[in-house]
Records
---
Amino acid sequence: MLMSAADYRESLRAYKPRVFVKGNAVASVADEPLLAPGIASVGVTYDFAHRPEHAALMTACQETTGKTVNRMVHINETSTDLLYKLEAVRLVCKVSGCAQRYLTHDALNGIFQGTKRTDIEHSTDYHQLPQLPS
């Protein structure tokens, strides 16, 4: 199931990360006024995935599961994926000013490639997908 911006905010409340802003502990990241612009910007990436006119850019089919996922957590498999990610970032930036979340997307893709190459070269198993409970 694709999350919405509201789902994202609720996940932040449930997760309860330990965060400090200007030296002060934040009780709720989702409700901290100084973090609101960033939370809203990331929220746009969730809500756009639900809009039919943006679905092609903001979602992708995950090869390993066949599930539709948000573009910003998809591991790129083709040059089209890379192009769609770029266009998705442009779209989100037009509305929110900054897509922020694309940095996580880039990091996930880098970790994916790095662990795969490490396993090939050193016979390790960092690239293995975790077994999730059913």
Note: Residues 5-120 form a domain with the 4-hydroxybutyryl-coa dehydratase, domain 1 fold (CATH 1.10.3140.10).
---
Amino acid sequence: MTLLRPDLAAIADMVPAGTRLLDVGCGDGALLEYLTRERGVDGRGIELSQQNVNACVARGLSVLQGDADTDLAEYPSQVFDVVILSQTIQATRAPSTVLHNLLRIGRHTIVSFPNFGHWRVRLSLLLNGRMPRTAALDYAWHETPNIHLCTIADFLALARQCNAEIEKTLSVGPSGATHATNASSWGPNLFAEGAIFQMKPARSQN
């Protein structure tokens, strides 16, 4: 059985067996392989890095090279039961557009990201006056792939702007362990190193 990082295992637990799934920015395919082989999902993936695409194909996965910023617009609406974007939205050029497309093409959307509002990040900025490096954000400022860092509060505001209904929120701790949380409260924004949101398109108000 494939062993997953704790945060990926938490995402896997959100996915019902046998669903039709798209993993956007699927990396080397560890999560997609687990869901395909252990949960029986009909899984597809898109990944920007050709090296990672090759790794996915070597695992026997159906993964295409693609860019979340541009290629999601080509997918029909509601074509997948679940769409996953793990640790990627902060590296996209247009997070709002990407999230709109995720909610459009999936009946349910799962997004995870590092929390730039964590107290260690705030303290490092206050004391050192330089961009912090943490376990979740371990890059020099000029080398990071993360171009749109956000806090949990920032993402919650974006989800509301995109007319998403929050179904479940998990806080991610230092070891990757997760627990259910209320994203609207101040605690997760200060103490969580990352977050996982499960969402669906909100019902029309008309």
Note: The chain is about 35% helix and 25% strand.
---
Amino acid sequence: MKALPLDQVVSNPVLHEWKTVEARGTFDVKNQILLRNRYFEGVYGFQLLTMFTDTQGKNFWVDCGWVKAGKDALTRPDLPKIPQGAVQITGRLRLDTSLPRGAFFAIPSNQADGLVSKANAQSGTSTENFYVDLISGSSPLLTPAVPAQLPELSDGPHMAYALQWIFFGGLVVYGRFLIRRDVLSDKEL
């Protein structure tokens, strides 16, 4: 579907989650968050969230994709270069509470609030109750090497579970039949 301007969908982000949106504004590379415990192809790393201010003055976080961790816990990961100045971005609108579960540095993750809300509370900033998964932008630097992954849509193991429960139901019916047969044969004796 065609990307919608962000200002058309922010009035009800719940209704428009997963829609592709476009926004113009600037990144604030001084406001970045590394979301830990993210893996890509078996390699440990982080999701990089960067503050974005659009031309309407709305502040929100942009998921700039996965970055590989440093060689050890004391080594900062190599973060992608994010252009300074006005840019246009295209991404998927997501709800704060839909961020992958995990923990920001020094922010507990055992509460029901979204992680972005916790980060805002800790830093004293104020952002919208949504974020954007970056897909591309007006600069080639804005296309993440490893973008946020889409959820996998599949039928899952539902058929196997359904057959399993049908089998269990059949065993219950067969067991009842055996019990009733034994009760009837005991009465005949």
Note: The helical segments are 6-9, 115-123, 158-188.
---
Amino acid sequence: MPRTAIVAACGAALIVMSASTRPAGARAQNTLTRDESAAGWMSLFDGASLERWRGFKKGGIPEGWRALDGTLARVQPAGDIVTVETFADFDLVFDWKVGTGGNSGVFFRVTEEADLVWHSGPEYQILDNAGHRDGKDALTAAGSNYALHAPLRDLTAPVGEWNTARLLVRGSHVEHWMNGVKLLEYEIGSADWERRVKASKFSSLPRYGREPRGHIALQDHGDPVAYRNLKIRRLDAR
């Protein structure tokens, strides 16, 4: 079968995003099934266009984020990107892949009234656990609610392979899933939440975790990263 590979480098970091001819009967990437559409799911990336995204506090998409071989990929320094639309309660699923030592993150309820995406939005950590120092601490490992809640265990696929994540946000309740397993859950604003935030680097950020609605953000942490099959379903009225 023919096989292509796109290699993107940033300093010493390297990620290989490869795709092979899809076998007969395999599900197409970056598409919605009829049942998903009927259930209210929408695609945030169709494999070719970045029209649903723009740079944080920018009018357009930075050049360093591109649609490559059916992935939404950060291939060179670009800054964080956010969805054009905002979301309150939602169910988000996505596939992600990093190279050796890779680091990124998916944030939610991000406001552009704050200076940086992490000043308001909690983070679903994206990481090569084995190759990055953050993987040595469960609180900052892949799938964690960054620096606040540790995942159940390391369920990441080997570096360079795809992982499927789910981020469920309903009111104050949040769940992180990885490859079909619930990693953690928490309640924003609970006594436990407040205790953890107070003891963290977020303690001086008045907007952190306080926004009822905001953008989904993908982080440029200086490493190549690829996403695909980004799908979201609103759980609120709009």
Note: Residues 1-25 have pLDDT under 50 and may be disordered.
